[in-house]
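Honest question from a wet-lab person: if I give you the sequences of every part of a complex, can you actually get the arrangement of the whole thing, not just the pieces? Trying it with mine:
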Amino acid sequence: DQQVKQNSPSLSVQEGRISILNCDYTNSMFDYFLWYKKYPAEGPTFLISISSIKDKNEDGRFTVFLNKSAKHLSLHIVPSQPGDSAVYFCAVTQGAQKLVFGQGTRLTINP
Amino acid sequence: DAGVIQSPRHEVTEMGQEVTLRCKPISGHDYLFWYRQTMMRGLELLIYFNNNVPIDDSGMPEDRFSAKMPNASFSTLKIQPSEPRDSAVYFCASGLSGTGETQYFGPGTRLLVL
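Yes, you can. This is the full assembly:
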């Protein structure tokens, strides 16, 4: 019973274009949403987050969008750079520190 | 800041042996988490502590797994006896109250049980 789903295991984007990573969740009570980035042989690194009272949060090239009615979260990276190639995890929580992670999407940026 | 420190980085052991994984959280953080990552189950929370007290251990797979946090700067995850299905990457993460749910992960321990 997956509470958080990232339906695309992989995504390939050309350098300079926009990368869009998607995440769906099942529980409308989740109130905080995060994206983590993971390089091989390293731990996940926090990237950006959004609370349920917002629908958009931007940090440089990274923007997270939240559609509560659709229970859908997305991460936009623009422009995409080779260093963005990594596995991206979305994570959700409900009023506590306990995170539930999606399965991850492997993003490859092609030069 | 050194970040979250985990040791060992790699561990190869034989089935039935005891395995101890170690973690030093970021200084001043009051939350500590243990995660396991496998191909089948992804990244799953095993247990977490707040101010050295275990809060939720519902993710611990079975009694062979135990975790302790004797002080604010050290935690262990022990598997006894280990089994091949325990092979995974184990991550420790720490976090700070009042900073949202952001957690900072260590580099992980890659465990292989033969």
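Two things worth pointing out. The interface with chain B takes residues 32, 34, 36, 41-46, 49, 51, 89, 93, 96-104 of chain A (CB under 8 Å). DSSP finds no helices and eleven strands in chain A.
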